[in-house]
Design brief:
The chain has six helices and 13 strands. The protein has a single domain, classed as Fumarylacetoacetase-like, C-terminal domain (Fumarylacetoacetate hydrolase, domain 2, Alpha-Beta Complex), CATH 3.90.850.10. α1 crosses α2 and α4 crosses α6. The protein is α+β, with helices and mostly antiparallel strands. The strands form two sheets. Strands 1, 2, 3, 5, 6, 7, 10 and 11 form an eight-stranded mixed sheet that branches. β8 and β9 form a beta hairpin. It binds 2-oxoadipic acid and magnesium ion.
C-alpha cells in the first residue's frame, strides 16, 4: 500500500459522491501516481463499506474488461473485479433514468448464480462448472465517473469498475446443455444491431472469469459464497446510450433483456 488510510477514505468519498451526484471527475491516478493495486481495491472496499453502512446490500460480484473487445476499447490488458448493489438493479423491460447517470453505456453479459462456495488460489474452470447453480443473462449499464470514460486500471478499480445499473433477464438455464463458448449475443438499440459476439469472447470461456475472481479473492483471504450472482463481463464493446434509446439484447438459449433510457 502506498496511500495512507486518510487518503483512501477521502478518495472513496470523492468517487462515491461523484457516482451518487452523477458528476464526472479527473482520474485519481493524476493526483496519486504512486498508488498501487491494493490501494485501488482498498478504495473500492471503502465504497462498499459506505453503501452497506447506509443500508444498501451487495447484490452481486462482477468481472470487467474480460473480453478482448472491452480491453481494446478501454486500452487495458487485465480483468478487474467489482460489485453491484441492490439499488442499481432495474427490472427487465423497465425504464432507466438517463439524468441520474453521467455518460452511460450498455454491455451484454453472461451471468451465473453459484450453489457452492468457490475459493482460490487454484480455482479453475472445472471447479466453477461444479459450483454453477444456473446461468442467466444480464445487461450492465456502466458509467465511469471519470471524464470522457478515460481511465487506467487502478483508477477504474477504485471507481468500483464503473458499476451503475444492471438488468437481469428472466430466463434461467442449467449449465448442462449450454455451451457458453458458442452462445451468441446480439445487441440492438432502437431496432438496429450495434454489436454481436459469442461467449468465447470472454477469456475463451466466460467461467474462466469466475475462476479468476475466486483466485483474486483467495489472494486476499476471501471466497465467493454459495448463492452469489456473478457477472462475467461484457462480451462486446460497451455502447453509449442516449435518452429515448430502447436497448434489446438477444441471448441464444437465454431469452432477451431490454430497457428504455428516459
Ligand atoms: C470498466 C468496467 C468493465 C465489463 O464488463 O467489461 C465492465 C469500464 O469499462 O468502464 O464492466
Ligand atoms: Mg460489465
Amino acid at each position: 500500500m502506498k496511500l495512507d488510510q486518510a487518503t483512501i477514505l477521502s478518495l472513496a468519498e470523492h468517487l462515491e459522491s461523484a457516482e451518487l451526484q452523477a458528476r464526472d471527475v479527473t482520474k485519481i491516478t493524476d493526483d496519486h501516481p504512486d498508488m498501487d493495486w491494493d490501494d485501488a481495491y482498498a478504495i473500492q472496499d471503502e465504497i462498499r463499506r459506505r453503501k452497506e453502512a447506509r443500508g444498501n446490500k451487495v447484490a452481486g460480484l462482477k468481472c470487467g474488461l474480460t473480453s478482448f473487445a472491452k480491453m481494446k476499447q478501454m486500452g487495458v490488458d487485465v480483468p478487474v473485479f467489482g460489485f453491484v448493489a441492490d439499488y442499481m438493479a432495474r427490472p427487465d423491460g423497465g425504464d432507466i433514468k438517463h439524468s441520474e447517470l453521467i455518460h452511460p453505456k450498455v454491455e451484454a453479459e453472461i451471468c451465473i448464480v453459484t450453489k457452492a462456495p468457490l475459493k482460490g488460489p487454484g480455482c479453475h474452470v472445472g471447479a466453477v462448472m461444479a459450483a454453477v447453480d444456473f446461468v442467466l443473462p444480464a445487461v450492465e449499464v456502466i458509467d465511469s465517473r471519470y471524464r470522457d470514460f478515460k481511465f487506467d486500471l487502478k483508477s477504474v478499480i477504485a471507481d468500483n469498475t464503473s458499476s451503475s445499473r444492471f438488468v437481469v433477464g428472466n430466463t434461467m438455464r442449467d449449465l448442462e446443455g449450454l455451451d457458453l463458448r458458442t452462445l451468441g449475443v446480439v445487441m440492438e438499440i432502437n431496432g438496429e444491431i450495434k454489436a454481436m459476439a459469442a461467449g468465447a469472447a470472454v477469456l475463451g470461456h466466460p467461467l474462466t472469469a469466475v475462476a479468476m475472481l475466486a483466485n483474486h479473492l483467495g489472494a486476499r483471504g476471501q471466497e465467493i459464497p454459495a448463492g452469489t450472482f456473478i457477472m462475467t463481463g461484457g462480451v462486446t464493446e460497451a455502447i453509449t446510450v442516449n435518452p429515448g434509446d430502447h436497448v434489446n439484447v438477444r441471448f441464444q438459449d437465454l431469452g432477451s433483456v431490454s430497457m428504455r433510457f428516459v
